[in-house]
Specification:
The protein is an alpha/beta fold. It has three domains: 4-197 and 232-295, Alpha-Beta Barrel (TIM Barrel); 199-231, no CATH class; 297-357, no CATH class. 43% of the residues lie in helices and 14% in strands. It has helices at residues 4-7, 38-41, 44-50, 67-80, 100-111, 126-142, 158-162, 164-168, 181-187, 234-247, 262-275, 286-294, 299-311, 328-347, 349-355, and strands spanning 29-33, 53-57, 87-91, 117-120, 150-155, 174-179, 203-205, 227-229, 250-252, 280-282, 318-321, 324-327. Helix 5 runs parallel beside helix 6 (126-142), helix 11 runs parallel beside helix 12 and helix 14 (328-347) packs antiparallel against helix 15. The chain starts with a helix and ends with a helix. The structure holds glyoxylic acid and magnesium ion.
Length: 357
Amino acid sequence: MKLPRQFFQPLAIGAPAPLRELPVRLERMIHFVPPHMEKMRAKVPDIAKQVDVVLGNLEDAIPVEAKEAARAGFIEMGKAVDYGQTGLWTRINALNSPWALDDVTEIVGAIGDKLDVIMLPKVDGPWDIHYLDQLLAQLEARHKVQKPILIHAILETAQGVNNVEAIATASPRMHGMSLGPADLAASRAMKTTRVGGGHPEYKVLADASSSPISGKPDIGGDAPRAIYQQDLWHYTTAKMVDACAAAGIKPFYGPFGDFSDAAACEVQFRNSFLLGCVGAWTLHPSQIAIAKKVYAPDPAEVAFAKKIVESMPDGAGAVMIDGKMQDDATWKQAKVLLDLAKLVAAKDPDMAARYGV
Ligand code: GLV
Ligand code: MG
């Protein structure tokens, strides 16, 4: 076991010191760009103004014959654009692929000082993070990179889910984690053919018999039995949120593949937001507005949170507001909403006006 004192030591002589706290940044969406396509690269300066994170995707969805072009295209878009407050990330290929080593060495060598985060797919355990952590430290030292490049893991294998807590705490480089529902479904042998979202056959059917408590039938007469579709991702999202919150890193919902179903995308994103996620991937421009709407607190909730904080200035005791009991714990919940509202307001004048912060 690594001793606590060594946890924050740089892993290579000359590498920047690991961060003790994550930078405070609004990351409502991680917007995926296929960097091998010149037409898409040309849109990056404009997209970078609309999103919180631009990610050059090198892994799945990039054809095998375009892997090198995607890497070169990402380096080009990294150099060509001033990203300002917008994060610049890349999703590299999996560590067991023929491309991962060159992805890391070439990108850090060329644009190590502009790159904020490397998203690492198919993370099975802390050993994957340790490998990339060490390699990044060596490359940062060689190329005199000034700030540490962070690592974001995709939670998309059954083994990764088993090891989620160890992954979250594997290194001070850990930025956060995203749920990867497509690969995870395959890894678990789920019987689906989707990229995220629900499934109409994953449901609960109300009992046909009488309720043992009330003695009344659950449903009246011949009325059809109530049926409710359930969330396939609830368990994993909750497990990931706990692992990330306990480690002080950020959980994200990943991709939603049905671009034609904005309503379902919004519901999937919102479930993750309510459970504790801070953002999601946007694979299509239409999903940017959905993520902006979902991963910012509702103005009515913010107004109520303000009431709680104002009526308990020192965050302790108990008060009644609109018939609801508030105490130290609801004060803390209110603080979460208000802190996020301030972060959103600092970036978005329309939301600042709606929040009144
Ligand atoms: C994302 O990479 C996924 O597999 O869902
Ligand atoms: Mg995947």
